[in-house]
């Protein structure tokens, strides 16, 4: 695989570029002279040209291409934009101010988006209504159909969604190992760190003291998943905190699971207010009760996504440590139909 190319003879600038590339998990090819850049000019996914060699490189007449950046540590140089045009760069990045942007550029060059992962958030209208089981079942269904899927447990008080999957003992990172991350994260590195079963990767909680998910950490995870997954399912907490807000703002659809009784609808109305502030598309999944599902959705003012079926033996299977039974079951059929409708 071709690596990004740095064109500079400035040792201090090169040290900065190597440090920024390391932060992105990327190795660089280096041309210390303008002529050395020519053989790799077309093949490098990204070319970063130091201001010190910009004029010399322009004199070699490099062919036009996308993905060229001019980098400088001297923002006061009035000739910088002339050099930018001369080498065909799309932008001038001034270090150290533009380091975060350059990390993203290096990471994108090394791991371009291969997928366009859709984000589906699942929230409960009240506790115990089955939102976590639905989130896990949707993720399992998608993964078993061949879609690369990330299941994100955003509820620190939910006991861990890995338990719902029957994978409590699976080795791999949990949220406490991830919460300090921000900026660009490679999905390959993320998937390698988390418990993964076939096409399903899971980011769950530990059983220790709960903590909040920083907005930056949720953003880093979802951005990585967007590049590397087909589907991301996020199980939200009842209270919409900063991490949940970030997930909802990036969602294609948010599903609110509602119990079809008066108290359930009233509780769901309160939960809906927080969800609706962040998500553009909110739909109700109604769990059977005394009220008509269509009336429940209408009273909440959201479309009806479907009626969650009752499944005999589901609670017993979960208590045994088994994943939700989906093969040839009402829940499995419902998840398949719901995913098809969302697509």
TrEMBL record:
SUPFAM superfamilies: P-loop containing nucleoside triphosphate hydrolases
GO molecular function term, any single one: ATP binding
Domain Rv3660c-like CheY-like N-terminal: 7-114
InterPro entries: Cellulose_synthase_operon_BcsQ, P-loop_NTPase, ParA/MinD_ATPase, Rv3660c, Rv3660c_N
Cellular component terms (Gene Ontology): cytoplasmic side of plasma membrane; cytosol
Entry superkingdom: Bacteria
GO biological-process terms attached to the record: negative regulation of cell division
Regions that span the bilayer: none
One matching Pfam family: Rv3660c_N
Protein's name according to its UniProt entry: Chromosome partitioning protein
Species of the source: Herbidospora galbida
């Amino acid at each position: 695989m071709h690596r990004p190319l740095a064109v500079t003879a400035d040792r201090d600038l090169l040290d900065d570029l190597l440090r920024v590339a390391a932060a992105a998990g990327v190795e660089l090819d280096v041309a210390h002279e303008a002529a050395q850049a020519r053989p790799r000019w077309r093949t490098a996914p990204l070319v970063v040209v130091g201001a010190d060699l910009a004029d010399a490189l322009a004199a070699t007449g490099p062919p036009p291409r996308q993905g060229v950046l001019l980098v400088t540590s001297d923002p006061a140089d009035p000739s910088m934009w002339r050099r930018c045009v001369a080498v065909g760069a799309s932008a001038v990045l001034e270090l150290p101010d533009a380091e975060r942007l350059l990390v993203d550029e290096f990471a994108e060059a090394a791991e371009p988006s291969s997928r366009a992962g859709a984000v589906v958030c699942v929230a409960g209208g009240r506790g115990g209504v089955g939102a976590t089981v639905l989130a896990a079942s949707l993720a399992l269904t998608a993964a078993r159909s061949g879609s690369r899927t990330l299941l994100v447990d955003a509820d620190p008080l939910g006991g861990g969604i890995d338990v719902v999957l029957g994978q409590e003992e699976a080795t791999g990172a949990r949220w406490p190992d991830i919460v300090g991350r921000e900026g660009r994260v490679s999905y390959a590195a993320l998937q390698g760190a988390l418990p993964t079963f076939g096409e399903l990767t899971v980011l769950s909680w530990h059983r220790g003291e709960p903590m909040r998910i920083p907005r930056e950490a949720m953003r880093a995870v979802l951005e990585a998943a967007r590049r590397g997954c087909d589907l991301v399912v996020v199980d939200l907490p009842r209270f919409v905190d900063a991490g949940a807000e970030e997930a909802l703002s990036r969602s294609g659809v948010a599903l609110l699971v509602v119990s079809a009784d008066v108290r359930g609808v009233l509780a769901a109305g309160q939960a809906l207010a927080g969800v609706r502030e962040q998500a553009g598309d909110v739909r109700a999944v109604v769990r059977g009760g005394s009220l008509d599902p269509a009336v429940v959705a209408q009273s909440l003012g959201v479309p009806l996504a479907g009626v969650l079926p009752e499944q005999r033996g589901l609670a017993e299977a979960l208590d045994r440590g088994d994943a939700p039974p989906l093969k040839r079951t009402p829940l499995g059929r419902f998840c398949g139909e719901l995913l098809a409708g969302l697509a």
